[in-house]
Amino acid sequence: MADFTTIHKVLTERFPGATMQAVSEAVDPWIEVSVDDWPRVAQFLKDEPTLAFNYLNCITGVDYCEPDEKKAKKVKWQPHIELLYHLTSLQHKHLLVVKLMLPRWQNDEPEMIPQVPTVSNIWRTADWHEREVYDLVGIEFTGHPDLRRILCPEDWQGHPLRKDYEMPLEYHGIRGR
Amino acid sequence: MSNTTATNTIELDVRTDEMLVNMGPQHPSTHGVLRLVLRTDGEVVSEVMPHIGYLHRCAEKIGENLTPRQYIPYTDRMDYLAGMNMNLGWALVVEKLMGIEVPEKGRHLRVLITELNRIASHLVGMGAYGLDLGSFSPFLYAFREREKILDLFEDVCGARLTYSYITVGGATGDLPPGWMEKCLSFLDQFVPVIDEYHTLLTSNAVFIKRTAGIGIMSPELAINYGCSGPVLRGSGVDWDLRRDGEPIFTKMYEGYDYEIVVERRGQYPADQEYPAVPLEAVLGDCWHRFYVRMLEVVQSIRLVRQAIEKYRTTEGSIGEPIKLTQKLPAGEAYLETECPRGQMGFGIVSDGNAIPWRARARSSSLANLSVVPELCRDCLIADVPAIVGSLDLVMGEIDR
């Protein structure tokens, strides 16, 4: 069983540029990894015998949108999307939260959803979790074998768990709202 | 899989064409509204494509518009067969974020209620599995016992299906007078009935023929696909969050004497008389997943008995009062608990308001279902319900 600081130390030694910040005071301590290095770090997390994160619990996308004018003063964040990976090692019984920071729209072009390399080749369960995040939060996983919507119909427009998503007024003759 | 080679040789004299067959969303064995598209060649299934989303009720979106206590009744509508366990999962993650500790008496009450719900849920899992394989009586018998548990739930919270009793900070109220005696008398008459179920299904020759050696899942495959609960333990992986989970959850089970049922051939708890493992059964097949579930019921009965005793003798209150619109501290928390179907994960992200910024539900059945295409490759059409049923899916939890 390795604690959070040990895991962070192992990661920073192996990938000097890839791991950025580590927050250990949070309820769930987390490590931020840069998007480009993520597949290599993920493979290492799984293969390294002292870490052995063989179980992927969950992938969560959280949208931090541009606040409206009334709330702008209270809000402390810059608009972005966070992607959280919750990992467990069944062997060593330790947990890790990995965070990826993404722009809301790629290159600031609206409707261009951000891209992240897939990890479904590392943990097979990521296949469906990534499809769900793509469907509801709107993040494209490059290299995913079958990136389709999973919960919404195939012709659904938009990504419903984006904070600025507006419910459609009508879908195939069914009244919305 | 070994059974296909024989089948293929039989089919050789008959000309068959490749066909796409829809199983569900209304097939009785697809547990609600699961649609499976099968690519078949004669009787042999070459590919299974699960389609989900028919029950999607936007539960995560609703969680972003209600305070955590208001959201409690929505969580039990996800897994409608184990509502108490779902309430507990969400209550615990909110308590984890807020840093609340439930008094000891409240923790014993939670063990008592959730383990009782685990029995009820496994009974449905068992009965419905029998129904999938064509035997109706176990279904009827399982529901007969489950009704008695639902009577107990009705006494504590007034509902029979959408029961929400456990809430953030503890439970909504104390147990009504005479409830514990009723619960104990139910357990006394329930224990001998378990033998009946073993006679009806576990050691039934037809049942063994239909399940043993079908849908074999290796431990590595189960872990890789994120399976959990009886599905994972049926493959021989010794992992149960009641023992291995995060402290806030495992604290509930401190001081309890029970065993975690893991399939290790011939090494089941020695003091119990169980039907022997049939020779045809292979580690990680449908039969073992069913068997682990049946043995877990016995362990849950032990837990309930102890919880009643501890609840009776512990002094103090059953919970901390939390306001309906209590403000949450900014931050995020994620917690997985051991539900009857596996690890149910709830996540909460807060920006400091009373309403969470993001609510997340990671369901165990989603991961358990994703392994179906792998298990059903080259099996027979008749084996598909056997494999899907052995995973004990609840579609409400998958689609949320």
Automatic annotation (TrEMBL), chain A:
Pfam families hit by this protein: Complex1_30kDa
Family annotation (HAMAP family): NDH1_NuoC
Family of this protein: Belongs to the complex I 30 kDa subunit family.
Name of the protein in question: NADH-quinone oxidoreductase subunit C
Keyword Oxidoreductase: yes
UniProt cross-references to PANTHER family, sorted A to Z: NADH DEHYDROGENASE [UBIQUINONE] IRON-SULFUR PROTEIN 3, MITOCHONDRIAL (PTHR10884:SF14), NADH DEHYDROGENASE UBIQUINONE IRON-SULFUR PROTEIN 3 (PTHR10884)
Function: NDH-1 shuttles electrons from NADH, via FMN and iron-sulfur (Fe-S) centers, to quinones in the respiratory chain. The immediate electron acceptor for the enzyme in this species is believed to be ubiquinone. Couples the redox reaction to proton translocation (for every two electrons transferred, four hydrogen ions are translocated across the cytoplasmic membrane), and thus conserves the redox energy in a proton gradient.
Domain NADH:ubiquinone oxidoreductase 30kDa subunit: 31-167
EC numbers: 7.1.1.-
Keyword Chloroplast among record annotations: no
SUPFAM superfamilies, per the entry: Nqo5-like
Entry GO terms, CC: plasma membrane
The reaction(s) this protein catalyses: a quinone + NADH + 5 H(+)(in) = a quinol + NAD(+) + 4 H(+)(out)
Domain of life: Bacteria
Keywords from the named record: Cell membrane, Membrane, NAD, Oxidoreductase, Quinone, Translocase, Transport, Ubiquinone
Source taxonomy: Bacteria, Pseudomonadati, Planctomycetota, Planctomycetia, Pirellulales
TrEMBL record, chain B:
Catalytic activity field: a quinone + NADH + 5 H(+)(in) = a quinol + NAD(+) + 4 H(+)(out)
EC number of the protein: 7.1.1.-
Keywords from the named record: Cell membrane, Membrane, NAD, Oxidoreductase, Quinone, Translocase, Transport, Ubiquinone
First-listed, main subcellular location of the protein, grouped into a coarse class: membrane
Sequence ranges assigned to domain NADH-quinone oxidoreductase subunit D in this UniProt record: 132-400
Coiled coil segments of this chain: none
Pfam family, one: Complex1_49kDa
Superkingdom of the organism of origin: Bacteria
Membrane topology qualifier: Peripheral membrane protein
One Gene Ontology term of the molecular function aspect: NADH dehydrogenase (quinone) (non-electrogenic) activity
GO CC annotations, alphabetized: plasma membrane
Subunit structure: NDH-1 is composed of 14 different subunits. Subunits NuoB, C, D, E, F, and G constitute the peripheral sector of the complex.
Function in brief: NDH-1 shuttles electrons from NADH, via FMN and iron-sulfur (Fe-S) centers, to quinones in the respiratory chain. The immediate electron acceptor for the enzyme in this species is believed to be ubiquinone. Couples the redox reaction to proton translocation (for every two electrons transferred, four hydrogen ions are translocated across the cytoplasmic membrane), and thus conserves the redox energy in a proton gradient.
The protein's name: NADH-quinone oxidoreductase subunit D
Native source species: Aeoliella mucimassa
Name of the gene encoding the protein in the UniProt record: ndhH
